[in-house]
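Exercise 7. Given the components listed, write out the predicted structure of the assembled complex. Treat all entries as one system.
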Amino acid sequence: MSRSNVTRRGVLKTGAVTGAGVALPTIFTASSAAAFTNEPTGSSVTLGFNVPQTGPYADEGADELRAYELAVEHLNGEGDGGMLSTFSSKALQGNGINGKKVEYVTGDTQTKSDAARASAKSMIEKDGAIMITGGSSSGVAIAVQGLCQEAGVIFMAGLTHSNDTTGKDKKANGFRHFFNGYMSGAALAPVLAANYGNDRKAYHLTADYTWGWTQQESIAAATEALGWETVNNVLTPLAATDFSSYIAPVLNSGADVLVLNHYGGNMVNSLTNAVQFGLRDKMVDGKQFEIVVPLYSRLMARGAGENVKGIFGSTNWHWSLTDEGSKAFVKSFGTKYGFPPSQAAHTCYVQTLLYADAVTRAGSFNPCAVEEALVGGDSSLPGISSEANRGFLFDGLGNGQTLYRADDHQCFKDVLVVRGKENPTSEFDLLEVVEVTPVAQVWYEPDHPMFAGGNLGECNPGA
Amino acid sequence: MFGLDKKDTSLLIIVAIITLLAPFILNPFPEGSAMAQFNAGYPDLMQRFVIFGIFAVGFNILFGLTGYLSFGHAAFLGVGSYACVWMFKLLGYNILPGILLSLVVSGIFALGIGYVSLRRSGIYFSILTLAFAQMSFALAYSVLSNPKFNLTNGETGLQVYTDDPQVLMGPNSPTVPNLFGLEMNATYKLELGPWLFQFNAGYYFCAIVMLLVVYLAIRIFRSPFGLMLRAVKSNQQRMGYTGLNTRPYTLAAFVISGMYAGLAGGLMASMDPLAGAERMQWTASGEVVLMTILGGAGTLIGPILGAGFIKYFENIFSKINDNVLHQWFAFMPDWMENAMVFIVHPFIGKGWHLTLGLLFMLVVIFLPGGLVEGGQKLMRWIRGDRRKKKAAEKAKSTTTTEPAE
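Answer.
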């Protein structure tokens, strides 16, 4: 009896298949030959916000998502418009992008390359996202950037600080507003030398992936050029939560500076461990032991609490800046969420605006047209004589004059050197800006050895 | 047919029909409707369904037949992926050499690990395999990925660069994984009214491979070799006493199962040419155990169901965010809407693990045989119901034949 049942079902199914097969050619709707992947045809356009919602960078991811929601509001003409009014390009009118209402989908990168790519793929294939943005880890940024290049959509990198993102892993469809390890080194080293002297022995703890490697390389090179010595470099897994076993050897290494090439939850834990081990009260050869955190953020400072006081680092942007763009952004972010934005939120907000502006100026969502608008200009930064000094120059987004460089799709702007505040006036007022390093000091040529080996390739519009 | 009995043939045919029609079956809701959120018929997820189906079917050959619970199968998956991507880097984007090498490398890996681990059974075997898998993960994640000797590219994941040798690539070769020119990411989109169906070359390649290996698994299940493996599960000591050396059988099962995992890894890399170390982590090994138990260990179709179930949750539920929830409950008054969102919030988005855990508990408690047992119970209930109805009708007709005059 069961056999006859199964056969009947088989017959039914086969019938259905044949039926569908026969009917198929007759019901072809004229499938519009799209010029590029996910060409928006309706009255709205979908952006994909791919941020870490779990894992060591979850705090940054949550703040990035807030910034994206704010950016979408402003693009659609809701809220107070934020940086739309201070942006030097006036193409954006608050009526969506190219007249299409902005919608978005979100995903969790889990700070894992595999998961991030799966999430980005589903945004592209299922939700029809025309642009992917976000991420708080360079490993993820590079993996997703490669995916977007293959799929033919634009990738606007979120917080990614590795030299490789716009160095050996650069892609024509990928763009980065955030600064990088080399710039941190170039900005931070002179300040360190001025404060701690020229004969220091540095011990590096480094997150074991592309960002950690390239930042360590950059900081070591920049400080060694000023006379420092690098005693040791120890790689730590990104998933580590306890760094005691890495801190203990520092005590007997003869080093007098500890450089923590850690970010997010990693840095909070390693700094706390280091302070618990009494490193900051230690004297080595008559010199006070110091700790340096090259890439700093307010979220990390809040996580590490008391321990950040007096510690130097660099940052892409800080909410206490007083230019018009920063003030407008801090105001609308604070009105919506009740606290100031982090640097991760800032770069993500700015990237969304820059993308929307480029699409509007190009008059098309085609990735190749967007690339042309985003970096294709002929303007250049004043005061830097270089062949590579050309691209799209803009202002009013919080970092002063900024160049989106055509050769590697990297933004060039001033870098902030910051220090943990000794007497914070509020729970957000944790960092003070020590120096604004001018862009000329952090400039490098696209073929600099730390960035060499990559190839932008051709822009890929996909289908 | 194909040396299978009638029941297995019909099972295979049903699986074939379902996999080939998956783009229709998985996209039941029209584009743009509120329910479109639950559509799973897009290439990436469909590929995952069949690839993890292969992985779980292979795992089931070891776990379902011999009862040896390996907690390190993800290592073979990862090794397969790396092997495949290296072939892309060295030879070119044709996927055949890559998949062949992933089979070979994972087979060798499984032989080595199995040779050592199978000296113990039970929990000790599980721990040994777990230890090997974690060692492989650590190797891939950091030891073999320093700037000087970079075999795995660590956290970023191994990927193909334009300046890689790729000696077999001509000037006009496609620059994405392909099978003799058929690009794996080529997708034909069919718009039927409000519905959108996507037919992806890579998916159909994986689906055909899955049908082949499911056929192979059925043959193994029904063979004397399979019977021997079942005997190992029921009483290995007794087999030892009768003078039979079981280790070659268990080792063979381990290697076959490892090669299934390697094949799955190779296919994963062929669909998306990047191999990350996370796919070797113990959570990935645990996932395949969950898939097999959830679907029904020791059954033929169970692991595929389990794989589909878990991947669906991972990819669909994790993408529902508060915004979507607010849309769902928009018809309610504001305070009720917010209350509902507050209640549902922990179970969606990043909380999908929680939902999955609850469902897993329910399945294990009420359906120890997995989803397959659930299906069987349902069938029996429907059939029993129908039989009862028939019997009742008969009874009714016999009783009503007597006129009550």
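Discussion: The domain at 183-315 of chain A is CATH 3.40.50.2300 (Rossmann fold). DSSP finds 13 helices and 17 strands in chain A.
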